[in-house]
């Protein structure tokens, strides 16, 4: 990736920078420059980073967007050599950074009336996604609920235990995690398996060999209501009645009017 010349930043590392350059200027797509070196911990392979961002019009220097004022960092980036998640160029850039580093990337956006801008990103935090639920086992799970057992890798199996379902949503911690509380507008990284009441499995991220990412604004209501308020690291047993699931319509392997049972490991949320 080509380096951007003529751009500087001042300010305390880890806080909103003041970015300077002569206007108008032009930028190439995917060009970049490190404006401020970080003074925190080194970014490690496989870590999720949260960045505060500013978009600056390179024609006149005006600020098009900023996440700093409302403190809404983007935590969707995992720094990884896995080419399915991050290009080699971006991996090589981010793996050499430390917390509080500020970088600028050139963008020419054909969907914004031809606007060209600098996307200025400051790495404000980092974390490593869990690989399975981690926390304290809950001992007082109601005896009439389905029984869950775990393999060594954390994959769940279930015994419906004669369970007939529920007319209301059940959201029961099986493991209580020690992470942050999940908000109903967040994106969640999870491992999960889903069954029908007769014990038929219809979906499992464990069988696919990779966790799943989804916005709680874009899933069935039973997931949105059932996972919000639980903590990262928790394993949650969800019993979702039809009106909070797929209702009176078939959905793939799920027949109409099905009560759904899920075991969900909350690995991260942002």
UniProtKB/TrEMBL annotation:
Catalysed reactions, semicolon-separated: [protein]-peptidylproline (omega=180) = [protein]-peptidylproline (omega=0)
Stored SUPFAM superfamilies: FKBP-like
Annotated region described as Disordered, given as residue ranges: 1-21
GO MF annotation terms: peptidyl-prolyl cis-trans isomerase activity
Enzyme class: isomerase
EC number(s) on file: 5.2.1.8
PROSITE patterns in alphabetical order: FKBP_PPIASE (PS50059)
Similarity section: Belongs to the FKBP-type PPIase family.
Protein name: Peptidyl-prolyl cis-trans isomerase
Native source species: Bifidobacterium pseudocatenulatum
